[in-house]
Request: fold
Amino acid sequence: MFDLAPRLRTIAASAAIAAGAILFAVSPISGQPTESTTASNSLPTLAPMLEHITPAVVNIAVVSRSPAENNPLYSDPNFRRFFNLPEQQPQARMSAGSGVIVDAVKGYVLTNHHVVDGGTEISVTLKDGRQLPAKLIGSDKETDIALLRIEAKNLTAIQIGDSDALKVGDYVVAIGNPFGLGQTVTSGIVSALGRSGLNIEGYEDFIQTDASINPGNSGGALVTLDGKLVGVNTAILSPAGANVGIGFAVPSSMAVTVMNQLIAHGEVQRGKLGIGIQDLTPDLAEALKLGELRGALIANVEPGSSAEHAGLKTGDVVTAIDGRPVHGATDLRNRIGLTPAGSKIRLTVKRGDDEQVVAATIAAEDKAAADLSGTALDGARMRDASDAESAEVGASGVVIESVAPGSLAARSGLRIGDIIVAVNRVPVASITDLRRAIDEKPAIVALELIRDGSRLLLVLR
Reply:
């Protein structure tokens, strides 16, 4: 039995938007749109481009083990003996998704983390019907990207395009395996860029499209009309778990960055600068007399961090990294977090009336402190409170930046914007302190936090 619905991330929404059909002519040689490349009936068509790239889009089947029913009575040997109950065994469960071949020689296949997460067996079915076992090279939950490898001859790979060059209104085509039906093609436009704050993943910079995306499309390709990969389909916004014209894809620029790290290290080794940042809103820019300037405002600089060594200061506005504009705090956070430790970057910084370029070295993220998986805070992404935030609430602490829907943190009652100031009455001034406090009291944790200016106690079990 195929378990499709959980394999495509959905968010509750009230509005439904119908996607319009698009017809364009495409050259069978170059794959470029033309005025009238036509079939014998002289109708415009996308078929030549699709014939070239659809062999690169694959169906993925995953076998995972669902845990046996967790009823305390089943653990009682006397109860089991009295009713002659068999031992409870984990049940095999199958799910389906999509993927896209990005290297025909090495057999690399990009897909979503949530498609293959927990899988004990992964198989890939090509368009020509070949079914191949796949090896998981690595997977990254924070960006929802995973990389598989298959061994076969005569594979077709898709050319990777520049997602940074996309504009709202560009035509795109989504290719995947919706509902396990087999390869399906839908079309639409880019509805929005840089979508974040959806709490789907930890690192969000989604392409929004009205091309129909449904359960099973996860991991499939979002391509431009010249047949280049610009996104990996990952989620839909829907009240019922099916397409209503609002779909999201991880941009190819982010997917390729993650893929390169998975190939090199088997995991993503995230970097940090040691700064607290916030969006430079129009009101804030006006208050600081920065005019129409846009970027990310540095709210605090950690002592001894790479940022301090580079000479960055509180109040600086980062407007570009390596010459590419910074659109806000989320953009800056994503780009720093996905830059490998040890890399050198050049930050364009506005400080008062002066603009300067600052060279900085990315440091390694403290994974031990940041990793709260397996605790009651699993699913929450957090950061140390800035000096301004600490001054506002009168205490140092840890700020909840995002909470994954359905996670332990969400079920525990944590919300975005909460500031954790103590654990079991012991003050915590950083994520490191929080990690240490939770490790010392793993069973029952009493969080003292500040929410909307009020102090409250939240008990986690």
